[in-house]
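Model: You mentioned two targets. I'll fold them one after the other.
Researcher: Yes, keep them separate.
Model: Target one:
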Amino acid sequence: MKIGIIGLGYVGLPLAALFATKYKVVGFDINQKRVDEINAGKDNTLELSDLDLQKVLVENLDAKEKGLVCSSSIEELADCTYYIITVPTPVDDTKRPVFTPLIKASETVGKVLKPNDIVIYESTVYPGATEEICIPVLEKSSGMVFNKDFYAGYSPERINPGDKKHTVEKILKVTSGSTKEIGQKVDELYKSVITAGTHLAPTIKVAEASKVIENTQRDINIAFVNELAKIFALLGIDTNDVLEAAGTKWNFLPFKPGLVGGHCIGVDPYYLAQKAQEHGYNPDLILAGRRINDGMGEYLSLQIIKLMLKHDTQVKDAKVLILGITFKEDCPDVRNTKVVDLVNNLNEYRVKTTIYDPWASPEEVFQEYGLVTTQEKPNEKFDVIVLAVSHDKFLKEDLSKFQHEKTLIYDVKGKLVNGYTARL
């Protein structure tokens, strides 16, 4: 048995490395630079250590029982029997789902598909998307018939970027198949490497729905506490103090207010919302949560400006240090980071922002957002310091190095124990 993993990003590479501990695995990605980096034993996403990656890499699989070979050549996928597609599913500027990566990946697999092969999708989609969008592409590209010549499965990814405790094999996996028998095969495949176990869903649609509501539920809960933060700010109450007190009850859910970005929580609800609207239902609660969370960058920038005015700090040309640009702490992932919204809104007030993030690639941030960042610690004083991302390095940093006698500190993450002027 040989497994092909299509897409070697935050999801695909850790999965490929895990399967390669037991099987022959071909990792495929259209980005040659990414392929070269991996074959050199480096993972710039930092999901895998150099040692863990190098343990599974092999030059070729011909004489091997297991191992990982990575390539951008479709020919390398030709003799695989399982294909696992792990490409991203983003939204466009109008918040509509973008299926282009999924369609292109399906076309690629279709070109090498053989009788009895199984194609498994891990990309987050709305219920029904695998069979409505992906399968027709596979049929057209391969010239074969679904559930007669080839089969499909769906097993939603649950990778948590930057989390070194809950790695892929330690997270229980939902599985499914296009027939009962294929479901069992897909489940056994994952069960052979996932130590946390698996849950076999009755249908692909059920598995798809389970994934999309995981992040939608979190999005709505965070939107609720973000709204609470706005209310308590008007009442002059510290939100963190309120949440700490409420958290003493055994069944209180410990969500925190903040910026909601990334490739999952800030995106997945739109997939479910679109499907609901196509069926004539407007998901008011889901979309309300999205509006609240998408508006937090603008809200926070306004709170910072108000804080400056309250303390007689001149706004125009004020030097503002933004600590962090990634979408979450201790992780280099800048996909859909909402810190960008905060920065862009602050810049409208003509302040001078400096963005410092030792985790984020300055080249990637500039290419994606047109913002200049630095991985080097600034050697100057600032009028305002904004803790936007709670990297462990920032929490241990002596912020006095960046302060003068009137410096204001706004703690977006609510992580600073003392020294802050205000916090969300």
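Model: Target two:
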Amino acid sequence: MKLHFSGTLQRFVDFDPVLTLPAGTLAETLRRAEERYPRLRPVLRDNGGRLRRTHRVVLNGELLASPDEDLMLRDGDTVEILTAIAGG
């Protein structure tokens, strides 16, 4: 499966915008990405280990309103992690 990161997250994955990882749960996929790029974890996760609310998860082009980290992913799936940006 493929894991894409938005532009703001790319600096935490050494500007590698797409990671190809083995299919598993969403939690396993994120853990593998965090192991490969340790700087990513504090940006993705809050102090309780949950995905920060500023991030959105898109599975195969469909926004997941409330992503369940136990969600099973299959080979061929594409997950995008998008970050909401605030400012003025």
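Researcher: Noted. Anything on target two?
Model: The first strand starts at residue 2 and ends at 5.
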